Amino acid sequence: MAQARLRGVVALDGPSGTGKSTVSKKLAAALGATYLDTGAMYRAVTLAVLRAGVDPADTAEVVRVARAAELSMGTDPLAPTVLLEGAEVEAEIRGPEVTSAVSAVSAVPEVRELLVALQRELIAQARTDPGGMVVEGRDIGTVVVPDAGLKVYLTASADARAARRTAQDVSDGRVSDLRSTHADVQRRDALDSGRTVAPLRQADDAVELDSTELDIAGVLEQLTKLVESRGLLVGAE
Asked: Where does ATP bind (predicted)?
């Protein structure tokens, strides 16, 4: 039997530490789709800001750096890439310095306008490929792709998210402890939900999926069922 492929866009939103990246990549790979991590784009611009020695609170300078930054995203879910000025920065953008500054940079309206435009270009290209794309972030269903065929808001308890983030940091070789990670999760939640432009929130027509008691396989199973229920799968040629 031919393998089913995704047609259209799956928008996967939610706060930090819910497992969005892991399940988004796995879902895209399983359904022959491309993948876009919009959060990585904001992190890459934040890295550019820090490299330039700019204070993340200096809006004018942040905008200047963002406009000048050369950013490129690879959308293969099996090997996604984040290039800044032609160099891979995936590991660097996950570090504590970028994590501490990304909420401030991503709250700047001009930065969001710039990156949303780029995100929509990548999504439009995926839609005409032909095929589909799994897009993850915090404002995908509400701002970036409000007409997505499926919108999912992935959530989990703060304790579960902090534990997952800590485990991932340790696995990636970064220094981390549960208490500080828990505090950072709550800080990010407050900043992302409270910003004026495109705050983190669940789209009115999104399906909420609580992953607190689910492992990766369980979340992936639920997502696949939702994709099927929306008629977003087509048989491969």
From this structure: 14-22
